[in-house]
Amino acid sequence: MFMERKMMHQKTMQMVTKTGKQITARPLTAYDAPYLVDIFEHMSAESRYRRFQQSLENPNPKQVWEEAEKIAQMESEQQGGFMAFWQRTFLPDVPVGAARYVRLDENTAEMAMSIRDDMQGEGIGTWLLGLAIDDARAAGVRQLVGSALNDNDAIWRVLDKLGYPYRRKPDGLISEIEVDIGE
Hints:
This protein is α+β, with helices and mostly antiparallel strands. Helix content is 34%, strand content 31%. The chain has helices spanning 2-10, 33-41, 45-52, 61-72, 124-138, 153-162, and strands spanning 13-16, 22-27, 79-86, 94-103, 108-115, 143-149, 166-171, 174-180.
């Protein structure tokens, strides 16, 4: 398992979106805070609400940077994840999304994903979360947990496409999610 994970972290993966855009992904690094902030800044208030489950229309820029740095600089033993970039002809490496997991214990991790608005619906989120799940499995994680708004149809479609069994535990407007990624 360790060798599989090590090989994945040395590679850059590629995909072509539904509309023909060239996308690359690589493991999340300690230097990715500016890319995470860029993705956040390219998300509408509605997308931010769906992702973070709170109103973030006018967030404090300092707090956004601090959170991005905290995510990027977390120890690799605690988290894994991937950054995706659009490889445009004259402007390569445009950050378009990130997916990651953070260990809660030996077998369980919390999952998270963000895709900038103008790249949603292209298949990037499904692909990126799939990469993060493969990495989590190789690291020994057997269950992913998270939460999502009940009306966030996009995340439910992504989870359905990934094909892992998952449970929704609705509680008001939000559902707690448990995804079984074990063997």
